[in-house]
């Protein structure tokens, strides 16, 4: 067991399957080449000391004193992982951790899950704690839920820890079953264009929690364990007696789950071009039924589709963040310029645009990488 090491974990893009993970549904993310890197060293004094190259100040406190509310800000994602591991009886002591990374902050690309995942990998390996990647994802999610106070599902942590290069990760969030499905748009002459809209997140924490409450209430009224259990074939009849807002929430979750399964079938059949309409339908559902888009996201999607993209949708929790679109490689520049022009017309902040590839999951960066399950 070594005393120090360098560990990194990627951010993620969710190809499709938004707001389905906390409804026991299906998701289809990829990992990004953008990572959070944690340089870690064990300490013998029982102190957790955390610093970041992207933030001022140092957080330092005794590991034994960790508790929800004691640490705030970005350091809470690190401290929360250590707290969960100790709460669950794992022999974790003091650490010095230096954080660095290039996952865009505030873009909805799960920089927080990348930080949690890199921390979990570092602390467990250097402490001699042997846990598989699914367990690490669960621990990281618990840290975000209970220590940070963000009621997220498990998609982001799973993508960061379990993803494979040139593959999408089909995850059943109820059973934790996974399937690595080939996803390499370039092989079909395509590109996955990402637009960071730079839209400030608006009321995201409260609205995210409100959507979860709506889903729980709808499931209770429908007498099902989760909205995943609603049959799409009976959807219109099922939602007829629900309040209008809850009916729309159910409609999004049920149809989005089916879109994930349809997308997975297309990727297995190497029919990547046909993903486009599913992406655009997903965005319409998120806009109209789930109500988590903002003008910047909608303008970006409309501009991309008008410029010839095969399909486009917001990705992440919404209320700001990024849009993804599937485009012909030859159309990347034209689609990029169309979005920039549309944002200028609306007097929005200029967006960042770049193409993404499916990258590997979390790994130890100072050794030869190993398979990520």
Automatic annotation (TrEMBL):
Main localisation: cytoplasm
Domain of life from the UniProt record: Bacteria
Keywords, ordered alphabetically: ATP-binding, Carbohydrate metabolism, Cytoplasm, Galactose metabolism, Kinase, Magnesium, Metal-binding, Nucleotide-binding, Transferase
Residues bound to substrate: 18-21, 208
Domain Galactokinase N-terminal as annotated: residue spans: 5-41
Gene: galK
Protein name: Galactokinase
InterPro entries: Galactokinase, Galactokinase_bac, Galactokinase_CS, GalKase_N, GHMP_kinase_C_dom, GHMP_kinase_C_sf, GHMP_kinase_N_dom, GHMP_knse_ATP-bd_CS
Active site, per annotation: 156
Site (Transition state stabilizer): 12
Binding-site residues, Mg(2+): 112, 144
Its biological purpose: Catalyzes the transfer of the gamma-phosphate of ATP to D-galactose to form alpha-D-galactose-1-phosphate (Gal-1-P).
SUPFAM superfamilies: GHMP Kinase, C-terminal domain (SSF55060), Ribosomal protein S5 domain 2-like (SSF54211)
GHMP kinase C-terminal domain mapped to chain residues: 264-344
Biological pathway: Carbohydrate metabolism; galactose metabolism
Catalytic activity as recorded in UniProt: alpha-D-galactose + ATP = alpha-D-galactose 1-phosphate + ADP + H(+)
Intracellular or extracellular location(s): Cytoplasm
GO MF term list: galactokinase activity
UniProt keyword Plastid present: no
Taxonomic classification: Bacteria, Bacillati, Actinomycetota, Actinomycetes, Pseudonocardiales
EC number from the UniProt entry: 2.7.1.6
Sequence similarity: Belongs to the GHMP kinase family. GalK subfamily.
Binding positions (ATP): 52, 106-112
Domain annotation GHMP kinase N-terminal: ranges: 77-162
